[in-house]
Amino acid sequence: MDRLAPFVSDPFDQPPCRGCSSYLMEPYIKCADCGPPPLLICLQCFTRGFEYKKHQSDHSYEIMTSDFPILDPNWRAQEEMALLEAVMDCGFGNWQDVSNQMRTKSKEDCEKHYMKHFVNNPLFSSTLLSLKQSEESKDLDTAITFRPSDEPPRPAFDSALSRDMAGYMPARADFVEEFDNYAEWDLRDIDFVEDDSDILHALKLAVVDIYHSRLKERQRRKKILRDHGLINLRKFQILERRYPKEVQDLCEAMRHFARLVGPTEHDKFIESQTLDFELRKEIKRLQEYRRAGVFTFRGARVYDCLNVHREEERLKRCMLTDLLQCLQDSTSCQQWLHRQAAIDSGINPVAPILSSADGAGRRNAPPLNLTGLPGTEKLNDKEKELCQMVRLVPGAYLEYKSALMNESSRLGGLKLAQARTLIKIDVNKTRKIYDFLIREGYITKA
Description:
By secondary structure, the protein is mainly alpha-helical. Helix content is 52%, strand content 4%. It has 16 helices and six strands. The strands form two sheets. A four-stranded mixed sheet has the order 1-4-2-3. Strands 5-6 form a two-stranded antiparallel ribbon. A hairpin with a 4-residue loop joins strand 5 (168-169) and strand 6 (174-175). The N and C termini lie far apart (108 Å). 11% of the residues are buried.
C-alpha cells in the first residue's frame, strides 16, 4: 500500500537504511509491525529478506513514495510539498524565489497552482471561515487592546512608544524579547536515538516536559497582557484617569490580582468600587445636610448657594486684608493691582510682592494660620507662636526639634553651625529655632 513519504529537499537528510546504512531514495519500505521508531529499509535489503532484532521478513510493510497526484494531475505529491515548503521559506508573493527553490516549475505555474488550490479553494476557505468564527465567538467577552478591524500601531524599534509597549509588535502578536527568552537553549543538544537507555530516555522526556511548562507560562503571561489591555500601558492609564483619585489607587493595588480573574470580572469589580465610592460620597453630603438642619432637596440647593456665597465673602476679606497691608507702600500696591488683574484674566501669578521700604525691600509675610494643620495639638503655646512667626508647619518643626535634641544629647551640646548642617532650610529660620530650643531648655549650647 502506497503512503505519502515525508518530503525532504536534500536526499542526505533522509534517514539511512537500517540494513545497508545507505541513504534512502523513494520508493522505500517501512515495516508496519515495528516501531516506534519506524524501521525503514531500501528496496535491495527488502528483496534480500533483511531481518533485524524483532523485525522479521514476513512482517507487513508499507511502500513509502510521493510519486502520485493529489490536487492536480500535473503536480505530484512531492512537488506539492516542495511548493508549500518553498512558500514557507521565501514568503507569500515571492514566486520567483519559490520557483528557483523548486527547480521543476515556473514562476507562473507556482503562483497559479497555489492561488487555485490553497487560497481560493472553497473547501479550505469554508474551513478557515468556520475556524475564524469559532475564535471570534470564544473571545467575544474579552477586552482586546486592538480590534481586528483597527490598524495596529507599528512603533519604530527602541522608540518611546515601543518602550511603553515593552517591545510588543502588534502586527505579529509577539514581543521583541519573550518571557523566559532562552528556554529553547535546553533543547538544542537533545536528540532521541534508539540506543538510549531507559533512564536517559526518561530524562530527555522530562526535559521536554519542563520546556512545555515554560512555554505554557509564556503563553499565559502573554494572554493576561492581551486580555486585560496592558500592552499599551499609557493608553490603559489614560482610561483609568476617568476614575476618582481613590479609585485610581484601588486600580493600582488590584492590578496584581487581575490575573486571577477574567478581564470582564475585573472591570466589573472596578466599576462596582467606583459606584460604591460615589454612593459613599453622596451619603456623606446628605449627612452634612442633616447636621446643618436641611431636610429637603430645595433646602439643600439653598444651602449650597449660601456656602458658595460664604466662600466668596471669605476670599474678599482676605483680599481686603492684603490690600490694607500693601497701602503703606505705593510700589507694593501697584504690584498687588497687577496681580489681581492677572488673577481675573485667568493667570495664576507666583511672583512675590516686593516693597521699596528700607532693609532688604521685602514685606513681612503674615503669620501662618495653624488651624487644621496636623501636629498642631502636640505644640504648646510658645511653640505655636514660633511656628506662626517663622511660617513653619507643625510636622516639620517637630521633626527638626527631634533631630536637634538627639544630636545635642549625643554630643553633649550643639553649635549653630551644626544645627544648620542638620536642618536644610533658610538660615534665619534655623537660627530662630536654635535660639528658641536653647532658651526653653530643650538643647544645650556647646
